[in-house]
Amino acid sequence: MNETLHRLNCFVENKPGVLARIVGLISGRGYNIQTLSVGPTEDGTVSRMKIDVLGTDRVIEQIVLQLRNQVNVIEVTVRHAAKRG
Amino acid sequence: MKSFEQPVCGAQALVDSLAKAGTEVLFGYPGGAVLDVFDKLPGAPFRFVLGRHEQGCVHMADGYARATGKPGVALVTSGPGATNTVTGLATANMDGVPLVCITGQVPISQIGTDAFQEADTIGITRAVSKHNFLVQNADEIPETVAEAFYIATHGKPGPVVIDVPKNVQKQLTKAQYPERVSLRAYHPESTATGAQMARLAKMINEAERPVIYAGGGVIASGASKDVAAIARKAGIPVATTLMGLGSFPETEPLALGIAGMHGSAAANRAIDNADFILALGVRFNDRVTGKLAKYAKRAKIVHVDCDPASLSKNVRVAMGVTADVKDVLTTVNSRVRKNEHPAWLAQIAAWRKEHPMAWKPMHPGVIMPQQVIEAIDRATGGDALLVTDVGQHQMWCAQFFRHKHSRHFLSSGGMGTMGFGIPAAIGAAIGKPDHKVVAVCGDGGAQMTFEELVVAVEHKIPVTFVVVNNGCLGMVRQWQEMFYRKNYADSILTVKGRCGNERLDEDLAYDYLPDFVKLAEAHGAKAMRVIDPAKLEPALAKAVRHPGPVLVEVIVEPRANVFPMQPGDTPVEGMIFQ
What we know:
By secondary structure, chain A is an alpha+beta fold. In chain A, about 25% of the residues lie in helices and about 40% in strands. Chain A has 2 helices and 4 strands. In chain A, strands 2-3-1-4 form a 4-stranded antiparallel sheet, covered by helices on one side. The two termini of chain A are about 20 Å apart. Chain B is of the alpha/beta class. In chain B, α2 (about 35-40) links the parallel β2 (about 25-30) and β3. In chain B, α3 (about 55-70) crosses α18 and α11 packs parallel to α14 (about 325-335). The radius of gyration of chain B is 25 Å and the shape is globular. The interface between A and B is medium-sized, with 18 and 21 residues.
């Protein structure tokens, strides 16, 4: 399966450790994050993360499901080459 | 809010919160950064059990949780105390066991300074826990404890770590334990849709060669009786995973036993030939599927699990249902028609007859390890709460004990943690004092956490510890025999037969080390050694009746292997029977 660029849009609680948890789920599989930006939303208690990562659809789908399982993750969507999620 | 109450220190708030969360037993080990909490323990309304190593403490809490279904709770200090919990946490995390582990931490002002006994506990435990918290202020303690217990027990259960810096333990707070927990982003409850239930019922009713495949999720969900109800009504045979053993009584004619690498021929062939598989609370781990591309390729699979991330993770399924197993089964039951599948069950019976779970003696006068497990089954009337370590004996426990009750087979399935058995059995026996707990360990794993035997002696916990001693790391030795040209590099624990580059003097006075009988006696336990096959059953019968902890060392055939075996990444046709 081909690795293609996926953009993960994550809305997360603005708490310490959340970024590390999310990055760990991605880097733990040996995937290299191409671009990462984190910023506040209008609601100061919620942060938005934009993560660009190269990966197969199958693995990205798995990562998204695991991200959604995280206690501090409110929502995750995927764009670009992803078929589902 | 009872804001008129006097403030208490963070340590007291933590102890009070643990009590409010329902803690009955706390397993722990003290140290500098958690002394304030220990200072408040003597007045706590719950029991404390002092382990001898933090890994042991967490395994005890884990065994307690697996046996009772209630969250296990552990308390350790910072730095090495916290790092020693990692294996225990990872073990619980893999098998979905609810735990709350409190770790002391250096004062906030010293975090990041390489202070004495400082470790980045949050960073280290992130990958081996379901969630973790660093408490920044004593006011957060009650709410954090409540959230930790909620997270540990909701959705797929798992371990949660709360790291509490020492200065926070000393801060005063008036914060009260919350009446309910509401997490903004974590809402794991999910139910099946009406359409999914209708489709599931249709598939069950139309299946000609159905199999129910039950895992640890059935036990976690308390759905054993519901599985049995559907299986009996619709005439569906039931295979289980290692973690699912006991979820369906193996005394039933519909029981296929365990599936997978060391599963029964009947279970693996039934899955291979099935046209419909109802997979309940399983993960389709590689130890179960063998070669993925050929796994259950004739079957439509419906996978029910509370964890959406486990659906379609390994095996592509016809329908994935994120829901509680018990909810799904109770709902679908009324739509399931009575059925018998006589031809299918006859085929399965033929497979079972062709390759029953069986063993043969290898040398006269030498006890076979499988025989030990069958003897334990008989000595306890089949009702033992069996706790295993990891390796060959674990597989024999899975194969040769007739599993009848859920929460009666406790084993480190996903992580395969050697050293789990002794402490987990102690925790299980503390949680279930009215049950006969038997721990079965190999000689390798028993040496990893043997120090915890002291705890069983101190608390007079009547666990029967059986060390199946084959003088080697049996499962490693088996793989070396089968896949590494019989090059038994460093898997032999007796002095004779060790790898050349270890440079042992074969004239050493001992061959088997340690002497488990002396070792157990030094820990204060009663102990006996069995070498003669004729003395095995009487010794075990005596041991299980002993009112305190007792260790039975059984010297067994060193070259016995676990069969059947479907080696990794092979299809079911590749099963080896001897």
